[in-house]
Automatic annotation (TrEMBL):
<keyword id="KW-0472">Membrane</keyword>
<feature type="domain" description="ABC transmembrane type-1">
    <location>
        <begin position="15"/>
        <end position="194"/>
    </location>
</feature>
<feature type="transmembrane region" description="Helical">
    <location>
        <begin position="76"/>
        <end position="93"/>
    </location>
</feature>
<dbReference type="Pfam" id="PF00528">
    <property type="entry name" value="BPD_transp_1"/>
</dbReference>
<dbReference type="InterPro" id="IPR000515">
    <property type="entry name" value="MetI-like"/>
</dbReference>
<keyword id="KW-0813">Transport</keyword>
<feature type="transmembrane region" description="Helical">
    <location>
        <begin position="148"/>
        <end position="168"/>
    </location>
</feature>
<feature type="transmembrane region" description="Helical">
    <location>
        <begin position="49"/>
        <end position="70"/>
    </location>
</feature>
<dbReference type="InterPro" id="IPR051204">
    <property type="entry name" value="ABC_transp_perm/SBD"/>
</dbReference>
<feature type="transmembrane region" description="Helical">
    <location>
        <begin position="12"/>
        <end position="40"/>
    </location>
</feature>
<feature type="transmembrane region" description="Helical">
    <location>
        <begin position="174"/>
        <end position="197"/>
    </location>
</feature>
<comment type="similarity">
    <text>Belongs to the binding-protein-dependent transport system permease family.</text>
</comment>
<dbReference type="InterPro" id="IPR035906">
    <property type="entry name" value="MetI-like_sf"/>
</dbReference>
<keyword id="KW-1133">Transmembrane helix</keyword>
<protein>
    <submittedName>
        <fullName>ABC transporter permease</fullName>
    </submittedName>
</protein>
<keyword id="KW-0812">Transmembrane</keyword>
Length: 211
């Protein structure tokens, strides 16, 4: 029997679970990172200390972090999603902060001259101009999260990592590939989708500027 005949249904379920972890954690990470990035861009003096502290979470091995959460939360999907969301935050946060700070001050002055409030300036000028940088961070975070989500299987929460770890434990290369190849395709596909969104947003921004 072929590998697909043996594990086809389980593989489809694993892909679905893996995608769920990626989408849920990146969505949470995006909201948190965008909020923190906006707040920190208003206080650069604090940001230069806060960003290195936040980046420390990136240095903690995923196995250790998800293991600690498992001890407190147990074997529930929220354990994996929270751990992955925390890892997803920093690339988006860093790019959001950098993108907002890179907005030309003359444009901000022009916005104030047009009578815009700070909130209006943020949503109508700063965020649109910083969006290519923000989406770049989102792309990075998403690709990383696809690989980090493999760790969910270490605490019995499924995903493509289940095939990889069972394959390693049983010295079965076919199982390893059954988990690794879909994960690689997923990362590349999501990267292309986000690149396309970034291209569309950048193009629309240029068209608006030309008008």
């Amino acid at each position: 029997m072929s590998l697909w005949e043996l594990y086809g249904n389980k593989l489809l379920i694993a892909v679905g679970v893996h995608l769920l972890y990626v989408f849920a954690s990146v969505a949470i990470g995006f909201v948190v990172a965008l909020t923190l990035g906006i707040l920190l861009s208003r206080v650069p003096g604090i940001a230069k200390y806060a960003l290195p502290i936040i980046s420390v979470f990136q240095t903690i091995p995923g196995v250790v972090f998800i293991g600690i959460l498992f001890l407190y939360m147990g074997m529930v999907p929220a354990t994996a999603i929270i751990a992955l969301a925390i890892y997803a935050v920093f690339p988006i946060l860093k790019n959001t902060y950098a993108g907002l700070l890179s907005v030309d001050s003359s444009l901000l002055e022009a916005a104030r001259g047009c009578g815009m409030s700070r909130i209006q300036s943020l949503f109508e000028v700063e965020l649109p101009l910083a969006m290519p940088s923000i989406i770049g961070g989102l792309r990075m975070s998403t690709v990383y999260t696809v690989s980090w989500a493999v760790l969910a299987s270490m605490i019995g929460l499924g995903g493509l990592g289940e095939f990889i770890y069972i394959g390693i434990a049983t010295n079965n290369n076919s199982l390893i590939l059954a988990g690794a190849i879909p994960a690689g395709i997923m990362a590349i596909s999501l990267s292309f989708v986000i690149d396309f969104v970034k291209f569309r947003i950048t193009r629309q921004g240029k068209e608006v500027n030309l008008k």
